[in-house]
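Researcher: I'd like a candidate sequence for this fold, 485 residues long. If you have to choose between options at a position, lean toward the conservative one.
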């Protein structure tokens, strides 16, 4: 495609195609089937869509112009960052009418302020790149998720990602100081203010965070940093069950709740998948256990207080039988190896077969009840099903994942995904939890919204969506269930 020859797409008006070509040039537009394909399938391969083109703006001005042009022609827009959504939140539908707006070219880290402890980053910066930049400046971006090498900041904030350090620092929303976003009419909302106190009406940045691209497209954000920890201790513990894991969490919290940076639960079934299917992943304990906990403590102090705390709590837990066995990392490489056992759970489950993922949360005290009751329910529903829960016990978010029985047809297993999810979620609801803890609603869980968030809550969401996006061009089909015509 040359500069003088605008691209064509059957679903786009010729005038729109010419305007987009003039705006972005050939380097900013993808239309060839092979180039477009990665943008139309989600990470889990649950959804296969089509799009008229993939548009790649280089800055906020181009992004705003794209939104304005598409709005004039009523063309749906699907914002996409690293395409790591677990619920199909960044995948277009099958109509081919939508354009995918990929933000990967907007990838500058504009500023890091050591006094404010903030960083200004564009939406296309990967979370890992932002973490590395903060580290090089002597600070830490505490948000950490398994897909951080691919996930981009815009998507991370738009979905209010949680991750491993939520127990100490909160979700993405808690780390968001300010943002810039392009609204559905093409206007640029400039909220790039790094103020700790700014009580001037509605907190629009908090409305956009977690909106999954349905209210606007984030272009630049200001994130809260923390001092880089100067001491850090990591341990892998074998426990009998989730109740013992909860007791261990309580023991650490009773001593120093501010020291807990991560507290992760893993089932024995899930750990066995990791060690069996991930090359180089080995269990550094004498024998397998029914369940495991990975605990990380950290402090900005350089003394050995954190190590003393870890040894003291684990010593008492081993003596009481709360912990069956434990190992502490003695080097950075050992720390990475222990964390790898946790981070490879999603990939190991994908290699083990088809899986149904339940990203759910309950009050921390009810995590053991969730795991016990949901395990019984799922094993009764599908004999031989492999129950492999893992996740953030410290904040009550468990990924209650189910892997197909060995030898079962994966298509037949996935055909029962709603039945399986509903079985788990019935227990979650009875425990006063949520059907979506950190992955969002996307298009996978829209059918749950009326029952879980119906009445005034869902109606208010619809009114906000209608007010800001009356033509419903921003990521249609996500969050909201289809209404009868």
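Model: Candidate sequence:
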């Amino acid at each position: 495609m040359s500069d003088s020859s605008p691209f064509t797409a059957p679903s786009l008006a010729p005038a729109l195609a010419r305007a987009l070509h003039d705006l972005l040039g050939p380097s900013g537009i993808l239309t060839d089937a092979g180039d477009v394909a990665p943008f139309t399938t989600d990470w889990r391969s649950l959804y296969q869509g089509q799009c008229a083109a993939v548009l790649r703006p280089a800055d906020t001005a181009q992004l705003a112009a794209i939104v304005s042009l598409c709005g004039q022609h009523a063309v749906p827009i699907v914002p996409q960052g690293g395409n790591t959504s677990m619920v199909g939140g960044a995948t277009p539908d099958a109509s081919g009418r939508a354009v995918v707006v990929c933000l990967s070219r907007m990838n500058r880290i504009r500023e890091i302020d050591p006094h404010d402890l903030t960083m200004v980053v564009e939406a296309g910066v990967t979370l890992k790149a932002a973490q590395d930049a903060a580290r090089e400046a002597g600070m830490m971006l505490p948000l950490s998720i398994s897909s951080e090498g691919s996930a981009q900041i815009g998507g991370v904030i738009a979905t209010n990602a949680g991750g491993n350090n939520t127990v100490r620092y909160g979700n993405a929303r808690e780390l968001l100081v300010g943002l810039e976003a392009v609204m559905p009419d093409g206007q640029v909302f400039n909220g790039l203010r790094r103020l700790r106190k700014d009580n001037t009406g509605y907190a629009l940045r908090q409305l956009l965070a977690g909106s999954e691209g349905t209210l606007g497209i984030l272009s630049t954000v200001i994130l809260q940093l923390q001092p880089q920890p100067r001491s850090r201790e990591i341990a892998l513990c074998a426990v009998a069950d989730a109740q013992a894991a909860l007791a261990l969490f309580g023991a650490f919290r009773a001593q120093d709740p501010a020291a807990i940076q991560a507290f992760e639960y893993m089932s024995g079934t899930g750990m066995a998948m990791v060690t069996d299917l991930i090359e180089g992943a080995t269990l550094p304990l004498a024998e397998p256990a029914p369940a495991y906990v990975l605990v990380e403590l950290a402090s900005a102090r350089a003394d050995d207080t954190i190590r003393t705390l870890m040894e003291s709590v684990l010593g008492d837990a081993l003596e009481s039988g709360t912990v069956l066995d434990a190992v502490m990392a003695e080097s950075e490489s050992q720390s990475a190896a222990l964390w790898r056992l946790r981070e490879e759970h999603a990939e190991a489950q994908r290699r083990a077969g088809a899986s149904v993922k339940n990203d759910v949360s309950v009050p921390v005290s009810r995590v053991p009840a969730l795991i016990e009751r949901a395990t019984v329910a799922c094993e009764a529903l599908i004999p031989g099903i492999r129950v492999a829960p893992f996740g953030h016990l410290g904040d009550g978010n468990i990924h209650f994942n189910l892997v197909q029985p060995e030898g079962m047809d994966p298509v037949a297993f996935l055909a029962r995904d709603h039945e399986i999810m509903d079985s788990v979620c019935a227990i979650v609801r009875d425990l006063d939890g949520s059907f979506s803890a950190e992955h969002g609603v996307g298009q996978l869980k829209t059918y749950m919204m009326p029952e879980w968030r119906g009445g005034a809550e869902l109606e208010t969401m619809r009114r906000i969506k209608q007010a800001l996006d009356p033509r419903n061009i921003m990521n249609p089909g996500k969050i909201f269930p289809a209404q009868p015509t």
